[in-house]
Amino acid sequence: xxxxxxxxxxxxxxxxxxxxxxxxxxxxxxxxxxxxxxxxxxxxxxxxxxxxxxxxxxxxxxxxxxxxxxxxxxxxxxxxxxxxxxxxxxxxxxxxxxxxxxxxxxxxxxxxxxxxxxxxxxxxxxxxxxxxxxxxxxxxxxxxxxxxxxxxxxxxxxxxxxxxxxxxxxxxxxxxxxxxxxxxxxxxxxxxxxxxxxxxxxxxxxxxxxxxxxxxxxxxxxxxxxxxxxxxxxxxxxxxxxx
Amino acid sequence: xxxxxxxxxxxxxxxxxxxxxxxxxxxxxxxxxxxxxxxxxxxxxxxxxxxxxxxxxxxxxxxxxxxxxxxxxxxxxxxxxxxxxxxxxxxxxxxxxxxxxxxxxxxxxxxxxxxxxxxxxxxxxxxxxxxxxxxxxxxxxxxxxxxxxxxxxxxxxxxxxxxxxxxxxxxxxxxxxxxxxxxxxxxxxxxxxxxxxxxxxxxxxxxxxxxxxxxxxxxxxxxxxxxxxxxxxxxxxxxxxxx
Lengths: 243, 243
Description:
2 copies of one chain form a homodimer.
Chain A: H1 6-11, H2 17-31, H3 37-44, H4 49-63, H5 66-74, H6 80-94, H7 102-112, H8 117-122, H9 128-143, H10 146-152, H11 159-173, H12 183-206, H13 210-236
Helix pairs in contact in A: 2-13, 4-7, 4-13, 5-6, 5-9, 7-12, 9-13, 10-12, 10-13, 11-12
Function (chains A, B): Ring cyclization and eight-electron oxidation of 3a-(2-amino-2-carboxyethyl)-4,5-dioxo-4,5,6,7,8,9-hexahydroquinoline-7,9-dicarboxylic-acid to PQQ.
Pathway (chains A, B): Cofactor biosynthesis; pyrroloquinoline quinone biosynthesis; Cofactor biosynthesis; thiamine diphosphate biosynthesis
GO molecular function (chains A, B): pyrroloquinoline-quinone synthase activity
C-alpha cells in the first residue's frame, strides 16, 4: 500500500506510463480478494458444502449486477466505437441468446452445487453486507467519472489467475460439484484477460495528470475493497448463525 | 389532451389494456412534433438550406444521446432477456461494426447536406435550448422509473409515419441533398415500428394501477415536449440571428 503522503504525491508531475501501470498492477497484487481468508479456505479445499453454497448464492448477487454497472459505464461514453467495445461485456454476462452468458453459467454452477435456479434468483439468502457492497460498487459506476468507473474494472487484471486456481481447487477438493458447473470460471479466463487489457489502455490514455492517475489507483483500491467486503460478509454468514 | 381532473382520475381503477393503449396512442396523435411549425415547413418544402442544416446539426445532438439514454434504461432492468432485447437499440445507433449504425447514417445525412463530419461532431453550433431539452430527456431516463423511461420511448409509435412523410418531402423538395443521405430515415421505419411494439407491450404489462398508467401517459407527454422544444429552439435559431 502507498506510503507517500498525499501532499507529496499531489505536487509531482504525472507518472510515466510504465510507472503508472506498475502502480495499478500493484493494487490487486496487494489487495485482491484471493488473499481473503475465506478465499484461501475455498482454494485449500476446507470449505463445508454449506459454506460453498453460501458463497455461490451471495456472489451471484454480485454477478447479476455486472451488466447493470457496465450499462452505467457505457452511458458515460460519447463515442460509438467505445460503446460498441464495452457493450460486449454486457453480452458476455447476458448472452447473445437465451441460455447463454455468464449469468446463465452461474445459475448452472448453482445447480451443480445443489441450489436450484429459483432459489438463486430469489435473492432471499443474500446477506446485508453483500447487498451494501454491491450497491456501493454499482453507485460508484453510476456516479464516478468514466476514468474511475473503468479503472475500478481493473481487478480483472488478477481474474484469469484466480480463475485458474479456482478451477483446479474445485476439481480437486469439491468433486461433488459436477465439472460442467465450472464453465463460468473457464470462460472468464479469456474474457478477463481481454477486458483488463482494454480497460488498462483506456485508463493510461485518459489519466494524463498525477491527480487523475491517483484517482484511478484509488478507484481500483475501492473495487478491491468491494470484493473483499463481499467475502467478509460471506465468511461471517447470517447474524445469529456464526459458525 | 386529457380533460379529466387529477382527483377524478386518481380515484378510478386501472384502465383496461385497450383503453390504456388508446390513451397512450392519443398522446403522439395530439402532441407529436410532426405538428410543430418548423416540421410542417420542413415537409412542405419551404425551409432554406441554412435552416435545414441547422436542423441536421441540432438534431444530431439528440441522435448521439440515444445510445446513452438507452444504456441508462438498460441499467434499470434486472433480467438478462429484457436487457438483451433493449441492447439492440444501442446497436441500432452505434452499429455492430465501425461505419454502420444510426449515428453514422446521420453523419452521412450531414455530408449529403454539405456539413462535414468534424463540424457535426464538434457540437459547437448546438443551440442552448437543444442542449437543455436533450439533457432533460437523458436525465429523465437516468432518474425515472423503468416504466416511465420505457413509456417515454413510445414516441416511436409515431416515428414510422413521420419518416415516410419526411423521405417523400426530401426527395421532392430538397433534391440538393443526395438520396443516399436519407438512409437514416429509411432504416428507422422498420426499427421504430419494432421498438414501439416492444415498448408498448412492456408498458401495458408493467402499469397495473391507474397511478402507474397515468405516470406512463405523463412520461410520453414529457417526451413529446422534449421533441417539440428541440424544434422551438431550432426554429428560433441562435440569439441575435433571428430570421
